[in-house]
Amino acid sequence: MLKKLLGKIIGELNFLKISALALIFIVFPLMGDTNGVYALLVGLTLILVDAIGPDTIKKFIFKIAGLNIEIERHETPPEDKKIIEEITQPNPPKEIQEKAELIIKAAEQRSPDKRSAEDYLALAGKYLRTNQYDKALSNVHFGLQLKPEDNRLRAHLLALKAIVYKHFGLKDFAIKFYEEALQVDPEFFQLYVGLGLLYSEKKEYVITEDLYKKALQIEPKYIQTILVLGDLYLVQSRYAEAEELYKNALEIDSQLAKPHHGLGLLYFEQKKFAQAKRELQKVAELYQQALVDNPNDEEIRESLKEVDKMLKIIAEK
Length: 317
Description:
Elements: H1 2-30, H2 37-50, H3 54-64, H4 78-87, H5 97-109, H6 117-129, H7 133-145, H8 151-167, H9 171-184, H10 189-201, H11 205-218, H12 223-235, H13 239-252, H14 257-269, H15 273-293, H16 298-315
Helix pairs in contact: 1-2, 4-5, 4-6, 5-6, 6-7, 6-8, 7-8, 8-9, 9-10, 10-11, 10-12, 11-12, 12-13, 12-14, 13-14, 14-15, 15-16
């Protein structure tokens, strides 16, 4: 009888998930929403999906069956925890990718009732990288339902939740989850960067700058923060400040394409064409090298097109 009940509840859960996705991707767009109703309904649907977790169902089944069972979960070794944290960050080190794949594969092979919160973080990161946002969100929620005591782990799960909501276009929800993550772990400097990017999209540049500077106070050598702050200054035509930051990034790693690209843009905008040409030629070379390793990377291809266009303009001067 217990087995039948479990099958029925799992069936209901799958039906709800499929129904929610159908609402998001089929029904709502057909409604021709133009006044924010679509975003509201998507948000409500995601909240509904997000409210269900495997542990809640399992505990409910055990309770009505009169069972008192403690679930033993996988205990993630400290070295694996570190790799999982790194692999779910932007631009993880290449040298850990092979080990990370083994950790993710092991997490996939464990049954849901054995997975740790770290397992769910690793799986959520994998699905996020492959744009499977519904699966990423499910795994984030399952990890949070385990109520991990590690503040960094909990904040990391909330950050991935924010990223998923951002991809669904629900930026206010994403901001809320980033802020919640920062309350859990205010020293997690990457959170300030993610939150700052959202405020930058809203053109709230004063808040954005403050968040990036907080990140740099905690970790001054984090290149991503240096670059996004440089980009912020470039957007505001604060060329001297942007130039200083891009050059700081190159002192850390002279073979990075993005600071060369930033310098090329700011010299181009200031009509310093000789300097712009030097930087843009360098960045074109770096992008071409990157495409050898990542031939399907559309972002690099688009950036290379932009660089080639500017070089042609310079050549005509």
